[in-house]
What we know:
mainly alpha
Amino acid sequence: MFRLKRRTGAEMAFDLFNNLLMLLICFVTLYPVWYVLVNSFNEGMDAMLGNIYWWPRVFSLDNYRAVFNNNGIMLAMGVTVAKTVVGTVIHVFFTAMVAYALSRQELIGRKWYMIMGTVTLFFGGGLIPTYLLIRDLGLLDSFWVYILPAAFSFYDLIIFMSFFREIPKGLEEAAEIDGANELRIFLQIIIPISMPVIATIALFHGVYQWNDYFAGVIYINNSDLQPIQTYLYRVVAESSSNQMVSAMAGNIQKSVTSQSVKLATMVVTTVPIIIVYPFLQKYFVKGMMIGSIKG
Length: 295
């Protein structure tokens, strides 16, 4: 029979302190999100009086009606969904393909490719040279400005390589004996068994694509190509936000304010990625363990 070790008072006090500390950190992290959500469901003029902390004082959906009645924000949402899906698929496929090639020891020039890639982790060209490059490539005011510059990441390549190095060579050798070429091996063998790390990189890049507003601010002048985060940036940052709210609110303008519409827009832009995240969580944890322990 095993006897349970009796815990000392110091150990119990330490555990209690840790639990209270974790609860405090969770509260500090989650409460701002709850505050935005509560105030977004409160009637705008009433919310200006303040003192709304836990529940809406005057419940109203007018803020969300003002958001969804606006064609501009729905178009921006469509652009964001499109660039997130297309950008993530291209990024994952292209980065995985390059990583698979660099994981092969027999690749000629592999050492120099790795050195050049490592340099990019520490040094960048800067905003102005990058803008000039994007302009000369003809990507200004183009949907592809969201996709092509972000199609490859050397940091993500390192995670892919850590996984690919652990794949038994026997799988590839057996496929080669059966007459498969490198592309077929990559598509039909490597990709299917790499779903944990693929889901991890897809989550990383998908969140980046969804939250990115900077590219829309710098490279896009056409309002029809602006993503939702850039639209939100305009709502929050522009001095003419009250005029924008007037256009968004329409007939319900009296019950909303610029602040209440900002909060509702924040919620609308955040909820989709929060919904997707739990479905990829198990793959995300597994993939991160692979990338950090193996290799």
